[in-house]
Write a structure and sequence with these properties.
The protein is mainly alpha-helical and 175 residues long. The protein has a single domain, classed as Ferritin (Up-down Bundle). The chain is 81% helix and 0% strand. It is built from 5 helices and no strands. Helix 2 crosses helix 5. The two termini are 34 Å apart.
Length: 175
């Protein structure tokens, strides 16, 4: 059984994960409109992952005799000043999600809720990976600089991340 406070907190996390999914979907559309196929694919994959994160919490709440709530999602931005600004927003949002997960972990300790604490360990690891990926992308963007071919090289770098993710997914499927 889950406490009402934990249930409400996890339902807020569902909302945050759902917003991330919609935000990244909006970013994918914007990137596609800019001709940035690699960035669009990357953001579509990120959107799908965030939806999976949301559903994982949704199912958990119901599994522990709580009531998962389908959240209302505010409209994310539709346009972005530049690819650099968009990627910085992704990084900031991932940091926000990490802080939210850590707050839930704190609540787990306060409530002696070790079942939810154990469930959240996957999210802690996932957020470390998400932030590291975004830092790596931002580092590459800084290295590319502001030259005339900047967008092309950023898009190619993002395509490399797509290829790595596809290879990891294939390896997991074979395991």
């Amino acid at each position: 059984m889950i406490s009402k406070k934990m249930e409400a907190t996890l339902n807020k996390q569902i909302e945050l994960e759902a917003y991330a999914s919609f935000l990244y979907l909006s970013m994918a559309s914007w990137a596609d409109q800019q001709g940035l196929e690699g960035a669009a694919k990357f953001m579509l994959r990120q959107s799908s992952e965030e939806r999976d994160h949301m559903l994982r919490i949704f199912h958990y709440i119901n599994e522990v005799d709580g009531h998962a709530i389908t959240p209302a999602i505010k409209q994310p931005p539709k346009t972005f000043k530049s690819i650099n600004v968009m990627l910085e927003e992704v990084y900031k949002h991932e940091q926000k999600v990490t802080k939210a997960i850590h707050k839930i972990v704190e609540l787990c300790y306060k409530e002696d809720d070790y079942t939810t604490l154990n469930f959240l360990q996957w999210y802690i690891d996932e957020q470390r990976e998400e932030e590291a990926t975004m830092r790596s992308i931002l580092d590459k963007v800084k290295l590319i600089g502001e030259g005339g071919q900047k967008l092309y090289y950023i898009d190619m770098e993002m395509e490399k991340f797509n290829a790595m993710a596809a290879a990891e997914a294939a390896a997991e499927a074979d395991a």
